[in-house]
Design a protein that fits this description.
The complex is a heterodimer of chains A (330) and B (104). Chain A is an all-alpha fold and 330 residues long. Chain A has 2 domains: 63 residues, no CATH class; 257 residues, no CATH class. Chain A has 11 helices and no strands. Chain A is globular and about 70 Å long. The model of chain A has no long low-confidence stretch (mean pLDDT 86). By secondary structure, chain B is α+β, with helices and mostly antiparallel strands. Chain B has a single domain, classed as Orthogonal Bundle (Arc Repressor Mutant, subunit A), CATH 1.10.10. The termini of chain B are far apart. The chains are: A mainly alpha (330), B alpha+beta (104). The interface between A and B is medium-sized, with 25 and 21 residues.
Chain lengths: 330, 104
């Protein structure tokens, strides 16, 4: 019979050294198992479940600390994280400030105007998180050697940000959009507007697509459903663009040592991504591309380019090392 | 070649608390330390602190003789070393003399 923590131990053994396992991971698991069996022996089922949960959280903390300290040098990771955070904050501030200037300058109550501008924060974050993370990683790691551990730590951060983006784009942003529209309508004395496509959450959009799914292909109504489908898949894909753009930035850092070539690569990657997004959307609106394919194709292309760049830089490094070894022998 | 820096013995607040508990009760498991500290130590961080203290030579550890009942993994018991005891004594004396307001 498997005991609590056995699988976690097997998982940790793949990533951690024998010393780390013996000194840090095993004591956590052993204490968890001992406490769990103690609770079961006294017939305290809820206590045993609580022990498992607390033990798993403790394991996650210890494991993360081990992984963090195992990154060859944590400084590049901290620098990349700080640069990304700075870039995201700056971009968000610029976007919200722009929105304020466009829609709310001259409002009689400035405090209320800023409160309304804050409804645009999720909209700004949807753009600033992928773009800021990409720029931050490129600036923070410029001229650094990206080890496998550093790359996997950054990829994990990017994945967590992508999951956060899903929550933002899927639920927070539509509600904030609608709140902004209502506030603006109230300012000019209009009735609150009904929700548009962009103001529907993932669940609402999905239900609407299901409800309208029965129209014949090519009809006017079917066009509307196709548009909804494109929007639905694009939201998922844009949320995961954070992960893909971060991978692309890491591949650029690995590939080029000169800052200006890396800068050009970052700008070209961002520009290319958004152009691809619009081109694919255009094809999907003309029924030449399926909505999921149109949404995910830019991500796929960028991810393939990142992998190709990484493979290229790995080959270059191997060649350099080979030449150096030959030189040493000669 | 630059001269190697002499090793400086440092003791954080958590480390001193762990040492105090180990000096007081001789040998403890990680979870016993958490319980004895009255929630001042957290189970997610105590093992990392213990690992660091072992590397510094303040404590030593061994696996318990008989595995826990119902076939669990053997637990790790921690004990203060003579160095750890001396560092704690020096730290306590320094705290009492220099910063009496922080002395426990």
């Amino acid at each position: 019979m498997s005991r609590p923590g056995d699988r976690l131990r097997v998982f940790a053994a793949r990533a951690c050294s024998a010393h780390t396992m013996a000194r840090l991971i095993d004591p956590v698991i052993a204490d968890l198992q001992a406490e769990h069996s103690e609770a079961l022996r006294h017939g305290r089922i809820w206590r045993s479940r609580w022990v498992c949960l607390a033990g798993y959280i403790a394991f996650a903390k210890v494991f993360m600390m081990c992984e963090w300290s195992a990154v060859d040098d944590a400084r590049p990771l901290i620098r990349a994280a700080a640069c990304s955070l700075g870039a995201v904050a700056l971009l968000t501030a610029v976007l919200v400030g722009l929105a304020y200037r466009i829609w709310l300058t001259g409002a009689p109550n400035q405090l209320d105007a800023w409160r309304v501008a804050m409804f645009l924060l999720p909209q700004a974050l949807a753009i600033s998180i992928p773009v800021g993370l990409m720029i931050g990683v490129a600036i923070g790691l410029a001229g650094q050697k990206v080890s496998v551990r550093l790359a996997s730590a950054l990829a994990t951060v990017a994945l967590v940000c992508s999951i956060g983006s899903v929550a933002n784009i899927g639920w927070l942003l539509p509600n904030a959009n609608q709140a902004f529209r209502i506030a603006m309508a109230r300012r000019i004395g209009l009735a609150p507007p009904v929700k548009g496509d962009a103001e529907l959450t993932f669940g609402e959009l999905d239900r609407l697509i299901q409800r309208r799914g029965g129209f014949p292909v090519g009809s006017y109504e079917w066009d509307g459903v196709n548009r909804l489908r494109i929007g639905y898949h694009a939201r998922w894909a844009i949320a995961f663009a954070t992960f893909v753009l971060t991978l692309f930035a890491m591949s650029l850092v690995q590939c080029s040592r000169r800052r200006w070539t890396m800068g050009i690569g970052v700008v070209a990657g961002l520009f290319g991504y958004y152009v691809l997004l619009y081109v694919c959307r255009f094809f999907a609106l003309n029924h030449e591309l399926a909505p999921p394919a149109a949404a995910w194709l830019p991500n796929l292309i960028l991810a393939l380019m990142a992998m190709a760049l990484m493979a290229l830089s790995a080959r270059r490094r191997r060649d350099r090392e080979g030449l150096r070894a030959e030189g040493a022998e000669g | 070649m630059p001269a190697r820096r002499p090793r400086v013995l440092t003791l954080s607040a958590k480390e001193s608390l762990i040492l105090e508990l180990l000096v007081e009760r001789d040998e403890l498991y990680g979870l016993q330390l958490v319980a004895a500290s009255k929630r001042k130590l957290k189970r997610g961080t105590v093992y990392v602190t213990l690992g660091r203290m072992e590397e510094k030579g303040y404590i030593t550890s061994r696996l318990e003789d008989a595995p826990a009942d119902m076939g669990g993994m053997p637990r790790r018991l921690y004990q203060a070393t003579p160095l750890g005891r001396r560092v704690l004594a020096a730290w306590s004396a320094a705290t009492t003399h220099l910063m009496p307001e922080f002395a426990r």
